[in-house]
Protein 1
Amino acid sequence: MTGEKNLQALLAGMRPVQRTGDYVYVLWPYGRPLAPGIEAAVREAEGLTVVLSREEADREGLSYDFVGAWITLEIHSALEAVGLTAAVSRALTEARISCNVLAGFHHDHLLVPVADAPRALEVLTELSAHSRQEPGGPQEPGPAHGTGQLQGSVRPSVPGLELRDETPADRDAILALTAEAFAISPATGLPADGEPVEVNLLRELFEAKEYLPGLSVVAVLDGEVVGHVISTRGWVGGHDLLGLGPIGVAPRLQRRGIGSALMNESIARANAAGESGIALLGSTEYYPRFGFVPAATLGVLPPEDVWGDHFQLLPLALWPGGIHGVFRYAEPFTRL
Ligand SMILES: CC(C)(COP(=O)(O)OP(=O)(O)OC[C@H]1O[C@@H](n2cnc3c(N)ncnc32)[C@H](O)[C@@H]1OP(=O)(O)O)[C@@H](O)C(=O)NCCC(=O)NCCS
């Protein structure tokens, strides 16, 4: 089994995930059979150090000082990968968070003081987001000028595909395409009852005050609109964010990279426009490939609790951190 060795790819693709519970380091009593709940162990001349859940340590009557949160960096790093641990520790040190690193065969794991866990997750997610913006990273941003001028800033992966600003003349074609794409509801997997709700949502977003020129993008193939994505203004408290959606691709042309091209174009345009983050509600299988993480891990809570991890956020180059609150979508979303 091989793992990723390129540091920038590792940082860009890493997803910090906190395990449930608290963890402690204890010196295991000499001669006592090992308990089943031990998560890591280091044998030294002075004795055996083990890491286990605080609950288990309490059950065993073992004493400890440090109580940590366990964060796993979810990317398969090669054991000989150089620099990941250093980059992660540097970022946490700069944020004044202490951390103990454990490397398993598949992943690196960090134990940070319990109280610092939310901030540590933010710092790590920001580190990953920033490395995606660096030249050579998986998602190179477009040229640093305003939105609406960036046609072709991300090379489409479908030959002949053009990505450009939507114009009012495209709207009928976009609505027809959206009706087709959402004919089977992605939320329920069942046929939509009448016109899919996403069609009227789009009609209203085109006219809404939260509409942002340059962030409504069509994919055109042989002169035909075959895909569309829109991002509109959203907020957490007084902080501006983007809400992405709906996104749709003509069913007969799905799974050819058009959706990915639209996503990458949206991300490049949002970065170039100086936006700080993009929120969306969608599949936890599809959007993480663009760097989206459960929004709550960054302090951005879904408008509805039941959305859980499906409510995702991509922190952009200007993500400020320290944001906490419930996301508010453009007004037409509230009528759904
Ligand atoms: C979601 C959508 C825009 C993706 O467009 P696309 O052109 O098919 O996407 P790409 O070709 O770039 O990517 C296809 C990959 O994404 C996966 N994918 C697409 N939608 C997915 C979903 N809802 N859940 C999980 N995976 C999904 C495909 O399985 C495929 O995976 P693979 O690369 O491993 O084969 C398109 O499928 C669509 O219009 N769906 C109907 C409307 C919809 O669900 N919109 C999103 C609502 S959140």
Protein 2
Amino acid sequence: MHAFPCGTPFLDFVGTLRARRNAEPTEMLASPQALDDWFVESGLMDVAPGADHAELATAVSLREALYSVTAAALAKEPLPADALAEVNRQATGLPVQVQLSDEGTTRTGSVSQGLATLAREAVEIVGGAEADLLRECSRPECTQTYLDRSRGRRREWCAMETCGNRVKAAAYRARRRSQNA
Ligand SMILES: [Zn+2]
């Protein structure tokens, strides 16, 4: 099961390498099947695209390029040329296909269409006004980035249910310890 803490697909996709500054980050895209599951669980596609190993490598390459571009935008540094070229290259592909019927919307596509959709979203957001809303989760280990669209721009965590509550519980335990000492 994949997690979608931040609600912006391309940033949740970047987050599939969890705790990336740890010595041993957690790789959530460890197999083509995991990539298929990500596309369906994210809601980007209704039908798994049937990824193979080469497509998984392309997906990881895009993810790491998206991370480099996002991290640079977050630090207000120039965007790294190699990563930019990779994002722009994958953004040229056709996006996921949407079709309307009486049952609603059906989203289907290949892996490259799914990746193009993510790359295009990143281009629009990092290149647009919302780039100023990029934040990194306040739980240091997490490293998930998100867009702070909250009122007053006071969102501290990628997700309250996970990181916010973990940090608050740890602070509570620390207070209890110091009171008991
Ligand atoms: Zn977090």
